[in-house]
């Protein structure tokens, strides 16, 4: 059964172009022009992926609003921003709202499709991991691969799918340095260096909100990151 993608884009030509491209790759696409239309139509079951523009019609941050709404419906729904807004502030804002990726519209179509495919590969790989090993425990950290949940000292850490997979990539080899390129490869994610850095910052913040003494993600300058022992 084809993966179902919700595409929210207010410009008709762009919406049609991306719809055709995604359908050409075998995806089923439900396209919407506004926040109101998307909220009205996106009922259970939710799609397999939501792709959102940020500025939608007369709502300059409509995509951010829709992202918050979708996150209230599901913690695990993959969400990607596809937008012309490319400032660091916009990118960080999108990731902080729980998006799994932030893609600017100057990206080539093959690269865009590669990132969509990589996201679905990551989900499939996660499901396979869950079948092979339901839990991974390292010190005070517990990864429940079956439910895609992370627990720190028995408290659940609210991570997005991308954040969960990055933590998994770090903790399955504690003490080993993982470069940004290795994190992208191991986590099946195609993003740039600044996006990896933003994800790491958000992961640290979420753990620190539960435990102010959390200090298990170590930055090895010029090399990457590692999960160190408590």
UniProtKB/TrEMBL annotation:
GO terms for cellular component: cytosol; protein-DNA complex. Residues 133-229 bind DNA. The keyword Transcription applies. InterPro entries: CheY-like_superfamily, OmpR/PhoB-type_DNA-bd, Response_regulator, Sig_transdc_resp-reg_C-effctor, Sig_transdc_resp-reg_receiver, WalR-like, WH-like_DNA-bd_sf. Residues 4-120 form the Response regulatory domain. Residues 133-229 form the OmpR/PhoB-type domain. Keywords: DNA-binding, Phosphoprotein, Transcription, Transcription regulation, Two-component regulatory system. Pfam families: Response_reg (PF00072), Trans_reg_C (PF00486). GO terms for molecular function: phosphorelay response regulator activity; transcription cis-regulatory region binding. The modification 4-aspartylphosphate is found at residue 53. One of its GO terms (biological process) is regulation of DNA-templated transcription. PANTHER family: DNA-BINDING DUAL MASTER TRANSCRIPTIONAL REGULATOR RPAA, REGULATOR OF RPOS. This is Winged helix family two component transcriptional regulator. It comes from Pleionea mediterranea.
